[in-house]
Write a structure and sequence with these properties.
The protein folds into two domains: 2-126 and 289-319, Alpha-Beta Complex (Quinone Oxidoreductase, Chain A, domain 1); 131-265, 3-Layer(aba) Sandwich (Rossmann fold). Helix content is 27%, strand content 27%. The chain is built from ten helices and 15 strands. It has helices at residues 41-48, 55-58, 120-125, 127-140, 155-166, 180-185, 218-222, 246-255, 272-283, 300-308, and strands at 2-5, 16-19, 29-39, 71-79, 91-95, 103-107, 111-113, 146-150, 170-175, 190-193, 206-211, 225-233, 262-265, 291-296, 315-319. The strands form three sheets. Strands 3, 4, 5, 6, 7, 14 and 15 form a seven-stranded mixed sheet that branches. Helix 5 (155-166) links the parallel strand 8 and strand 9 (170-175). The radius of gyration is 19 Å and the shape is globular. Residues 10-318 form the Enoyl reductase (ER) domain. GO terms for molecular function: oxidoreductase activity. It comes from Actinophytocola xanthii.
Length: 320
């Protein structure tokens, strides 16, 4: 089968399209013919081996797993021992290792049925970013809360705006000039162009700040909170080569017990129940995956370059 592989860490040029053996499903797994695969910054981190902390899980000198990609949507073609949740022909979506390939091996607890009225591209855009936004909003936003979403037009941010509105929040979205209309279309009550004004230095205070951009220090973000507000740091972009932006999350966890604010990070928990919930939200029109553009499998490296450049509006998807 064809797959996007790499045998060393680096930028997108280390990726190549190659013929590799088709995997076989093990116990509790299914084999999926991949139709579409989502692209998010996490793919770059695993490809580049940065921050260096990720290499403790992926291989210190070179990647243990050659095939990249995590979000997928496709069709089950075979089931492993002990699997009774799906049969060949079932359309599913979820997370796995090695989604940038014609076939991928998937744990049944990391996938669910794709709703019939949701496209493969839409379903592939959901898992990692959608679950992250879902868990962030679920932990923090209550009806009537004022919510600031920094990075409102990005992969996680575009989902967070919609989910925060559905949870009853009054949402202010922060993004660049060219993405303001997108943030409004997603349901943001107010928008802030960060190229023209600093969203965290004004007079307004928020019950919840969801920071998906990963650049501002804690001291600045806390100034945007109400006295007992909550800051949730999503992701770890923009930091050093050893910890990336994770030092902000660590700093928030250490500081939180000593201040009136609740400061924390979020780690997405991949599970079938929440994937099913996301799929239903898309099926009933509550949630809309924003897909900026799609790339064929052979151009997966270009898709990653586009994401890393910070220009994407919502999600980017690789089609197979």
């Amino acid at each position: 089968m064809k797959a996007i592989v790499h045998d060393e860490y680096g930028e997108a040029e280390v990726l190549t399209l190659a013929e590799v053996d088709r995997p076989e499903p093990g116990r509790g797994e299914v084999l999926v013919e991949v139709r579409a695969a989502g692209v998010d910054p996490g793919v770059w981190h695993l490809m580049a081996g940065l921050p260096y902390l990720v290499r403790t899980a992926t291989g210190l000198r070179r990647p243990r797993d050659r095939v990249r990609g995590r979000d997928f949507a496709g069709v089950v073609v075979a089931v492993g021992p002990g699997v009774d949740a799906f049969e060949p022909g079932a359309e599913v979506f979820g997370t796995c290792g090695g989604a940038f390939a014609e076939y991928a091996r998937v744990r049944v607890d990391r996938c669910t049925a794709k709703p019939p009225n949701v496209s493969f591209e839409q379903a592939a855009a959901l898992p990692v970013s959608g679950l992250t936004a879902l868990h962030a909003v679920r932990r923090t936003v209550r009806p009537g809360n004022s919510v600031l979403v920094i990075g409102a037009a990005g992969g996680v941010g575009s989902f967070a705006v919609q989910l925060a509105k559905a949870a009853g929040g009054e949402v202010t979205g922060v993004c660049s000039t060219g993405k303001l209309e997108l943030a409004r279309s997603l349901g943001a009550d107010h928008v802030v162009d960060y190229t023209r004004e600093d969203p965290v230095s004004g007079a307004r205070r928020y019950d919840v700040v969801l920071d998906t951009a990963g650049l501002r220090p804690l001291s600045q973000l806390r100034r945007a909170l109400t006295p007992r507000g909550t800051l949730l740091i999503i992701g770890g972009e923009g930091g050093g080569r050893w910890l990336g932006g994770l030092e902000r999350v660590l700093g928030a966890m250490l500081l939180s017990p000593f201040v009136s604010h609740r400061l924390r990070g979020v780690i997405s928990q991949e599970n079938r129940k929440d994937l099913e919930h996301l799929g239903q939200l898309v099926a009933d029109g509550t949630l809309t995956p924003v897909i900026d553009r799609t790339y064929p499998l052979a151009d997966a490296a270009e898709a990653i370059r586009y994401i890393v450049g910070g220009n994407a509006r919502g999600k980017v998807v690789v089609t197979i």
